[in-house]
UniProtKB/TrEMBL annotation:
Organism listed in the record: Actinotalea fermentans
Cell membrane listed as a keyword: no
Known function: One of several proteins that assist in the late maturation steps of the functional core of the 30S ribosomal subunit. Helps release RbfA from mature subunits. May play a role in the assembly of ribosomal proteins into the subunit. Circularly permuted GTPase that catalyzes slow GTP hydrolysis, GTPase activity is stimulated by the 30S ribosomal subunit.
Key words of the record: Cytoplasm, GTP-binding, Hydrolase, Nucleotide-binding, Ribosome biogenesis, RNA-binding, rRNA-binding
Protein's UniProt name: Small ribosomal subunit biogenesis GTPase RsgA
Gene Ontology molecular function: GTP binding; GTPase activity; rRNA binding
GO BP annotations listed: ribosomal small subunit biogenesis
Annotated EC: 3.6.1.-
Subunit structure, interactors included: Monomer. Associates with 30S ribosomal subunit, binds 16S rRNA.
Sequence ranges of Basic and acidic residues compositional bias: 1-13
Residues binding GTP, per UniProt: 161-164, 212-220
Protein localization: Cytoplasm
InterPro entries assigned: G_CP_dom, P-loop_NTPase, Ribosome_biogen_GTPase_RsgA, RsgA_GTPase_dom
Length: 347
């Protein structure tokens, strides 16, 4: 994907005698543009929220302006829209600009096909919803989600559901050394879901993308968190207002009291990671990245089998509990490096 910053730079034209601020060719044509948040995408139609979190906030349907070319607009994007931005029935606005993205969650079609697709923009954290039983947790799939999140520049929250059926402790121990936060939910005696307040605390004020395999209880959580989620994603197409929401792309749902957003991703079951380089993954492990940069031989893969990988030396330099903690961290990094090249279809 081409970075938007680059695109603007390409279009820069300086105007002698009119100050030093560079201007883009396009900007003057769209001085009336208003800022909007993309909440859903369906076959060329975009549901956007104009002037979000202001008294003038309104839901508008938009199309992409031709000048954006092949640039993809995704859920979570902040965009500028022009045209009929009233939101009145039948009105249609045009998206003319995509703002720089803070984070970009991507996936590759599969591990041998390095075509990247942006799934969601500007999210803060990836919430990996995993059942502790029924279905059994798949750590390879969790690892791959962690890699995708770190590559995106996002935090990770592991939400372990169905704790009424199995003990969460082993998974919590496995993921804590990776810097992954965990939270646990369970069916309670009244057949409701317990642990929601702790989950809400993690989601508060943030933009969170929820991923999870079928049957893990993701819909149960989304419906509990966002009381009208069913209406937003189920019976009515959120973009066109007609029929069912048939697309499998992401949908942003606002948490009550404007306390953040959850982005549900019905179609995302696994992450192809061919685009993730070891460097991009290492960047999420600041302590290990520093060791690697200073001391690893050129071309080191940092795998357990790599000769002279400085990470082994770094573990051996410590003693007692510190050595154990370092070893766990290095093992975790190596597990994620290996997860990058696993078979996405096996997830
Ligand atoms: N025991 C137990 N069952 C749960 C819990 N949460 C959800 N379930 C059940 O697990 C099943 C799957 O839940 P859903 O919320 O539909 O799961 P999903 O991840 O959205 O799955 P899809 O709808 O297939 O995408 C349902 O029968 C839920 O009632 C839990 O905490 N404990």
């Amino acid at each position: 994907m081409r970075a938007i910053g680059r695109l603007d730079e390409d279009a820069v034209r300086t105007r002698p005698g009119r100050g030093s601020r560079p201007r883009t060719k396009r900007r003057p044509a769209h001085e009336d543009a208003v800022r909007a948040l993309v909440t859903a995408v369906d076959r060329g139609r975009y549901a956007v929220l104009v002037a979000p979190d202001t008294p003038g906030e309104r839901a508008v349907t938009a199309v992409k302006a031709r000048e954006l070319g092949r640039e993809r607009v995704v859920c979570g994007d902040l965009v500028d829209v022009v045209g009929d931005t009233s939101g009145a029935t039948g009105s249609l606005a045009r998206i003319v600009r995509i703002a720089d993205r803070r984070t970009v969650l991507r996936r590759t079609a599969d591990d041998t096909d390095p075509v990247e697709r942006v799934i969601v923009a500007n999210a803060d954290q990836l919430v990996i919803v995993t059942a502790l039983a029924d279905p059994e947790p798949r750590t390879r799939m969790i690892d791959r989600c962690v890699v995708a999140a770190y590559d995106a520049g996002m935090d990770v929250l592991l939400c372990l559901t169905k704790a009424d059926l199995a003990d969460p402790a082993p998974l919590v121990a496995l993921y804590t050394p990776l810097g992954v936060q965990t939270t646990v939910t369970a069916r309670d005696d009244a057949a409701g879901i317990g642990g929601l307040d702790r989950l809400r605390h993690h989601l508060s004020g943030r933009v969170s993308v929820l991923v999870g395999h079928s049957g893990v209880g993701k819909s149960t959580l989304v419906n509990a968190l966002v009381p009208d989620a069913d209406r937003a994603t189920g019976r009515v197409n959120v973009v066109t207002g007609r029929g069912r929401h048939t697309s499998s792309s992401a949908v942003a749902l606002r948490l009550p009291e404007q306390d953040g957003w959850v982005i549900d991703t019905p179609g995302v079951r696994s992450f192809g990671l061919a685009h993730v380089t070891p460097e991009r993954l290492l960047a999420a492990f600041e302590d290990l990245a520093a060791v690697v940069e200073e001391r690893c031989p050129r071309g080191c893969t940092h795998a357990a089998t790599a000769p002279d990988c400085a990470l082994d030396e770094w573990v051996a330099e410590a003693a007692g509990a510190e050595a154990e903690a370092r070893a766990r961290r290095v093992d975790s990094l190596r597990r994620l490096l290996a997860a990058r090249t696993g078979d996405a279809r096996a997830d």
